[in-house]
Protein: Diaminopimelate decarboxylase
Amino acid sequence: MFADKDISKFNNIETPFYYYDTDLLQKTLQTCATAAAPFQFHIHYALKANFNQVLLQQIKDIGFGADCVSSGEVRRAVEVGFDHKKIVFAGVGKSDKEINEALDLDIFCFNVESVQELEVLNELASKKQKTAQVAIRINPNVDAHTHHNITTGLDENKFGVNSWDLPECAEMLKSCPNLKFIGIHFHIGSQITNLDVYKNLCVRVNEFAKWFEDKGFTLQILNVGGGLGIDYHNPDHQIPDFESYFKIFHEFLEVKAHQEVHFELGRALVGQSASLITRALYIKKGKKKNFVVLDAGMTELMRPALYQAYHKIENLTQTKKLETNASFVKYDIVGPICESTDCFGKEVEQPESFRGDVFAIRSAGAYGEVMASKYNLRDAIRFVYSNEV
Ligand SMILES: Cc1ncc(COP(=O)(O)O)c(C=O)c1O
Ligand SMILES: N[C@@H](CCCC[NH3+])C(=O)O
Structure:
């Protein structure tokens, strides 16, 4: 819920823009850090969720590490000041150039996703006379019970080494003098709201850890990835239940005294901290449908078009006046882009809306700004921070 003073502020700013609530972000980060502390769990923030530098600064300051999926993200993490000994690099398709850059930056660990990648990494590290620390990303075949487009830990997914390739992987590790094997890594999917899924993951991690240890390897790191979801239906001041989440790993993961448990959270840390603020350009009344045409589209927030993802939409101008205007209408809320999927919600009940009304599309902090595109040669996306206006 936005305060009246926020809505008045928005009236004077050119739309569309991302509005970042830096206080909520701070509270979310602090809650996560406090929940992880009793178990000495290590948090790496997954930059792919949002690599906005202002947010990254806050995240770095709380002491989290960085989980990156490209050398661009590795570079961004270094520029912002993340300790290079807390930077990990995962990704199913790291190019030689990216690997070389990450080797030069002496990152903490490469999360390697195939046997062939081990070979390439060893060769590139040897040319630089370096030793790269590696964790093997294993595909555990655990169903994350999330949208099928954002599940990553099933046999049919491209990510990680499949269990049947592990013997070959173990042989390769033994024969690579420029690699230091330090752990195993998992990430089963994103926007996971059924926490029981993580119990299944813990069982599989325990099995794989034992498999490696039985072969004489020492595992220093158990990296269980991220994926904790947020409640898109109730965005107000919402902080995910980090305590229950970490407790599951504390209870179900078998952690040896010499081992560290690493997490890679993205959405849960930043998702609720932003709204996309946009204005109604036109109201179209049809025979079968009414439309609100906004000045933001799938180019600013792609998730609804890409995954039919739900984001709560609020007409801030009319909600403010609701006592005097109790008439509700169902609208398809669409953007200006030349695509039929450019739609933020169908048959969404809203107060009767008018040209110029300011709308908020909530829970847009993760996979929002970073997935914006220039399609239709749109203007670059703008942002506003709560502590600056
Ligand atoms: C390897 C890896 N780690 C961490 C994340 C972060 O995921 P989430 O934003 O769902 O926490 C992702 C994205 O799904 C990922 O692919
Ligand atoms: N972009 C996705 C999440 C992908 C997570 C990265 N593997 C989303 O918006 O929900």
